[in-house]
Write a structure and sequence with these properties.
Number of helices: 3
Largest sheet: 4 strands, antiparallel
Shape: globular
Radius of gyration: 29 Å
Distance between the termini: 66 Å
Structural class: mainly beta
Strand order of the largest sheet: 3-2-1-28
Helix content: 10-25%
């Protein structure tokens, strides 16, 4: 499957460099250097099609324009502390989440913030903003079960219950590393944990997960919803990716191998069966979900942390096509050619017809 000029992939690195490729074979990957070297810890599309929101470990957020290929705004001096763990466009504002549990709504001239009141050992490590549900955001992390917050009223609307206790009567930990929502049902959210759980929560049904998938050997790092209903992909620290069906009971559909090191980020095309991943082996990969084929792979030389996928429209594809070198002599030849009007063309046509008629008469006489 050829992806040339059909998709644009952006990858964030541990040194703060933003790289992008158009999936062409033997393409030189372009990159944009940051103003300050710091790990990219959050990467999301912005309020417009050409805006990308980039969050860094040094508590800063940059706004990048993908058409002009430059950084247009830096957001710093936030109220909270800790690395940026999530960013998202919220209407005309930008939502920024920090590891210490502070969520900020930045709108340029002013900003508003609130704390999600973490426990002593708790952290905020994952956040999801569903565009179909305005003002609502899902959160989770270390010693921090899944919750849904209203960012306008700053109130918690849903709080998940713990998974209970194990055989030794010890509480089952849930260290959430990734959260994803499902476009077909705005009340559904799935969480991937460090302990090997994938938990599906339905806010309408109950506070405990309605579907639980557990793999003892796995430690999940990231999660993304797939193009089919109630399907998701999860990445592990062991270097493989799983396609799960979270319709009760949850089951494993596919396993994608070939990665060396932990998978750091996953993003799926909402329409096509394609998934883009980054891993600690510094490769950016695109897999086909139905055939399991590796349709694109490129080595990006740096540790990769985040990935974004964008399907290009025809106008954007035409802009990216490199203009071929023009032959100057060929162009000069066209410039020096005389322009022929319609009258001249008809006269030339009549002369040619007369000449052909005279030739045929000579041939008849000779015969």
């Amino acid at each position: 499957m050829d992806l040339s000029n059909k998709y644009c992939l952006y990858a964030g690195t541990s040194r703060g460099v933003l790289q992008y490729t158009y999936c062409k074979p033997d393409e030189k990957v372009s990159y944009i250097l940051p103003e300050h070297q710091s790990e990219i810890t959050a990467l999301e599309w912005g309020r417009s099609e050409d805006e990308i929101i980039i969050g860094y470990k040094n508590e800063q957020v940059h706004l990048y324009n993908s058409i002009e290929n430059k950084y247009v705004k830096t957001v710093s001096k936030l109220e909270g502390e800790g690395r940026i763990v999530g960013v998202a466009p919220a209407d005309k504002s930008i939502l920024i989440a920090q590891q210490e549990g502070i969520i900020t709504l930045w709108s340029g001239k002013k900003s508003d913030y609130f704390s999600i009141n973490l426990e002593e050992k708790g952290t905020l490590d994952a956040i999801v903003y569903n565009k179909s549900r305005e003002n609502l955001v899902g959160t989770g992390g270390e010693c921090n079960d899944f919750k849904v917050w209203d960012i306008q009223t700053k109130q918690c609307l849903f709080k998940a219950k713990s998974l209970g206790h194990d055989e030794l009567n010890l509480p089952i930990p849930t260290s959430i590393r990734g959260i994803t929502s499902f476009p077909e049902n705005e009340k559904l959210n799935a969480c991937a944990t460090k302990e090997g759980h994938v938990l599906l929560y339905d806010e309408k049904a109950q506070r405990r997960p309605v579907v639980k998938f557990f793999e003892k050997k796995a430690s999940y790092t990231c999660i993304s919803s797939a193009y089919r209903e109630r399907q998701c992909l999860v990445g592990t620290t062991r270097g493989y990716m799983q396609l799960l069906d979270l319709r009760a009971p949850g089951k494993l559909l596919q396993t994608f191998t070939g990665f060396t090191g932990s998978i750091t980020s996953i993003v799926c095309d909402p329409v096509e069966p394609l998934v883009a991943t980054t891993s600690l082996d510094r490769f950016l990969r695109v897999h086909h979900l139905e055939t399991k084929d590796l349709v694109y792979k490129v080595y990006l030389k740096q540790n990769l942390t985040k990935v974004l996928m964008k399907a290009l429209i025809k106008e954007e594809q035409q802009e990216e096509v490199v203009n071929e070198a023009v032959d100057d002599e060929y162009e000069e030849l066209f410039k020096n050619m005389e322009t022929v009007t319609d009258k001249e063309q008809t006269q030339q046509k009549r002369k040619s017809e007369c000449k052909t008629g005279q030739k045929t008469k000579k041939k008849i006489k000779e015969a």
